[in-house]
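Q: Here's a chain of 534 amino acids. Please give me its 3D structure as tokens.
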Amino acid sequence: MKKYLILLASAMLAWSCGDDKNVDEPQKPEPPVTEAAISLSATEYAFAAAGGTSDEITVTSSGAWELIGDDKVFEPSAKSGENGDKVTFTVGVNPKSEERTETFQFLCDGEIAELTLTQSGGDELTIETREYAAPVKGGSIYVDVKASGAFEYTVEEGADWLTKPTAASAAAATPERAELVAAANDTGKARQATVTFTLGELSVPVVVTQAQNDVLKVAEGTDVTYNVGKPAETIAFAFEANFKPAVAASADWITVGEPVAASAEEGVVAYTLSIEVAANDGEPRNGTVTIAHPENNDVEALVITIEQDGEEPLPEGAVRIPDATFRAALLKLNYIESADSEVCMPTQAGKDATTMNVSKNNLATLVGTGAEIADLTGIEAFTNLTNLQVWGNAQITRLDLSKNSKVTNLNINNLTNLAYLNLGTMTLQWLDVKNLNVGALKIVYSGTMADELGIAGSMTTLDMSECTASIKYLNLGNTSSNNLSGTLDLHTIKGLQKLNLNGCKSLTKVILPKDVVSSISILSQPESVEIAYE
């Protein structure tokens, strides 16, 4: 036990001596504490309005640094770095007249160094509204402009309808009104022009449009007042428009057609209006035809005045027969008492007559070779006719048989200039209207055609809109010179069983009544013709 105590004491003495030796040896010094710091080689930098890149900014710092600030305008080359690094800033052109500025902060261990960047204001040219509509009737337009100096504006070359009355000028950064003067639009078409505003290197385009004006005017050399005689007459009235107008007559003895345009081009085109004046067997009369815009009441309408000669009221039982050849033939037939005057008194034989042959061939026998009737006015007095032969009288343009309802046998072939045919309520087995050379034919009919109505000629228009007759077979294919074009409206016809369209290659559409959709037979339908049902 004693032995172990001695060893422990020796060990403790040895440890004690070793510890004293560490205390006596020199100690390594602690490093000095460095304070945080950051500084810049410049604290301000100014850019010109044109922009560019700054000089290099040297960052002196006690350690790593970072950059804080809005870099949307002034863009730094670096956003962080170490002691001694360099930074530049880039900025674009200043589009405003006001100076702009931004302060950036360089941070290092809580310390801050600031750099203020500025850029002087540049030219400003601001136009909020870039599109303007000029009045159709002409007038001034004012463009609001915000500019930093005197600006200029020019109208594109060729747009002579838009001008500037005075030199453009504006106070810096002050809203100004630039004036443009538009002439009245008399072209019939919409138009536009670009106006360019400039200030220094800045350029702003502004578009000015002017809507189409509504044009309605009488064609040069065309009268608006017509004095016509007692016989039926057709007036071709010429006018110009850039829209399809509405047409109306003030009296039932005046019939107007649809205005026909010379072309389908945009803008002002020439139109022709056919005005039919019925024969007058009464006192002088007058009426008007109005051509107007269908919607715009501001467009001045065209008013055509028609004054027609007349006679004193006819004696009881008399009839007016203006055509001398017709009177001469009736006298030979013993249908009138005298042919010396237009006012004729029918004989009893004439009143009772069931047959009248005034065809061209028979006129040669009755009146003389070459005789021809141009006007069948007065035929209405012979109401008992059942057989009427008129064929070959090429001068007849209008044939009104609406009072001759008993006619069952009618021959009007080779009335080459016939443009209007009124069959009234006749009941016919068949009828040929052939060899027509007119541009348009109108048929009015409310009777019955038991078999075939054949129509043949070079006309381009066939108007059967007032045809409510019962027609079994409508034959439009009996000609080699069929020029019918556009739309043919047959939807008011009743009982139609067969339709021949042979040669109707210029037609685009045929409208038929709905009730025949499953029963009608259509012969020789050209591929270009659409069939519709109403």
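Q: Can you summarize the key feature?
A: Confidence is low (pLDDT under 50) at residues 1-23, 168-174.
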